[in-house]
Amino acid sequence: MLKTILSISGKPGLFKLVSHGKNMLIVESLTDKKRVPAYAKDKVISLGDIAIYTDEAEVPLHEVLTSVKNKENGAKVSINTSTAKPEELRTYFAEILPSFDRDRVYPSDIKKLLSWYNILIGAGITDFTPEEPAEEAKEEAK
């Protein structure tokens, strides 16, 4: 599911990929459902391609979002990201991902991740596990 959820630099919030045309994507905001174009010049990244640095390796975003969901019992985050101090954000994040790299994961990254989580929960997206491509599923079925 996270492969079709996009973050576009310069535009607040998250977007769902609806369609694509020549030199642009058609995306729909998860918050207000408005459809807008995202052009080739826009920096667009799929949430399925994001990982968080840890002391050992990188952890895919879907695992971190699932950990947040388990901690919050499927509700929005209990910490106020707009008023939380950097140390509060780090302490909260350490409960979710104890081995996160404190030198490379900044408080602004934690804020963004938690706000993305709130947007996803608000949009009714609660399953963060990646979907297997249809071809892989067919191979396993054989």
From TrEMBL:
<dbReference type="InterPro" id="IPR049281">
    <property type="entry name" value="BVU_3817-like_C_sf"/>
</dbReference>
<dbReference type="InterPro" id="IPR049280">
    <property type="entry name" value="DUF6852"/>
</dbReference>
<dbReference type="Pfam" id="PF21186">
    <property type="entry name" value="DUF6852"/>
</dbReference>
<dbReference type="Pfam" id="PF18347">
    <property type="entry name" value="DUF5606"/>
</dbReference>
<dbReference type="InterPro" id="IPR049282">
    <property type="entry name" value="BVU_3817_N_sf"/>
</dbReference>
<feature type="domain" description="DUF5606">
    <location>
        <begin position="2"/>
        <end position="47"/>
    </location>
</feature>
<protein>
    <recommendedName>
        <fullName>DUF5606 domain-containing protein</fullName>
    </recommendedName>
</protein>
<dbReference type="InterPro" id="IPR041218">
    <property type="entry name" value="DUF5606"/>
</dbReference>
<feature type="domain" description="DUF6852">
    <location>
        <begin position="50"/>
        <end position="120"/>
    </location>
</feature>
